[in-house]
Write a structure and sequence with these properties.
A 6-stranded mixed beta sheet has the order 2-10-9-4-5-6, with no helix packed on it. Strands 1-3-8-7 form a 4-stranded antiparallel beta sheet, with no helix packed on it. It is mainly β. It starts with a strand and ends with a strand. The radius of gyration is 13 Å and the shape is globular. The protein is built from no helices and 10 strands.
Length: 115
């Protein structure tokens, strides 16, 4: 059974930073491109960033380019999202999954950015 566990969220002031982490189990992690996604109440879950299987390439949605950095450690089955210069509009529950998504979603981690 594949399990995705996100952590690292919290409350931060605008301009601050957070580092999210996602630990995967029950899957051959290094075979998959991985991504971070986010969702706010009443809205569809949206793509944030993706990293390919060997960390050779990354891609970001326009609103986070230059502020967020996705990385992975295949030896630890983890994918991280470093978020800098946070804005109130980044407030959301953040999730990780394969990209494109294949597995069930985890519980996510709440990020709240105050103005």
């Amino acid at each position: 059974q594949v399990l995705l566990v996100e952590s690292g969220g919290g409350l931060v002031q605008a301009g601050g930073s957070l580092r999210l982490s996602c630990a995967a189990s029950g899957v051959t992690f290094s075979r998959y491109n991985m991504g971070w996604f986010r969702q706010t109440p009443g809205k569809e879950r949206e793509f944030v960033a993706t990293i390919n299987w060997n960390a050779g390439s990354t891609y970001y949605t326009d609103s986070v380019k230059g502020r967020f950095t996705i990385s992975r450690d295949n030896s630890k089955n983890t994918v991280d999202l470093q978020m800098n210069s946070l804005k109130p509009e980044d407030t959301a529950v953040y999730y990780c999954n394969t990209s494109p998504t294949i597995f069930n979603w985890g519980q996510g981690t709440q990020v709240t950015v105050s103005s």
